[in-house]
Design brief:
By secondary structure, the chain is mostly helical. It is about 80% helix and about 0% strand.
Length: about 150
């Protein structure tokens, strides 16, 4: 009895799989999320190692820069001046920026400050992060609009 094996073409299989949105979409988001999470971790660590650890400066910085980035990118992506493919929008906005800016970490840092009875610091941190995050989101929008005019 002769066993005949069909030649298995991996590149064709991958190409066919990536044509399906149910595979391509989560893959795009996942790739962006990996980069976003690693960026958040290393940037936060670098800042925390450099500054006094009594205030979560790393999370603060990441939330502000992420808010700016979200405002900037979404304005560019939804505008008509620059054509950004839908998969790239998913990679950057949902994957990278969604993973990079985590307000769950922000909330945890606030909770930890409260748990340590640092009520005033917790309140200031919570309020300033939200206000400056919104301001940076708006600045990102303004910059993107200036660039695309």
């Amino acid at each position: 009895m002769k066993l005949v094996l069909k030649r298995f073409n991996v590149s064709n299989l991958l190409e066919q799989m990536l044509q399906k949105p149910e595979i391509r979409t989560p893959l795009a988001i996942s790739l962006g999320a990996i980069a976003g999470a690693l960026s958040r971790y290393y940037i936060s660590k670098l800042i925390s190692d450099y500054f006094d650890a009594t205030l979560p400066y790393g999370t603060f910085f990441v939330n502000l820069t992420g808010s700016f980035g979200m405002g900037f990118f979404v304005t560019l992506a939804l505008g008509e001046a620059i054509l950004i493919p839908p998969d790239l929008r998913l990679i950057i906005a949902v994957g990278f920026l969604g993973s990079y800016t985590t307000f769950s970490t922000y909330e945890l840092d606030t909770f930890n400050l409260l748990r340590q009875n640092n009520w005033l610091t917790a309140l200031i941190y919570w309020f300033v992060s939200a206000v400056f995050g919104l301001i940076n989101l708006y600045l990102g929008i303004v910059l993107a609009r200036l660039i695309t005019k």
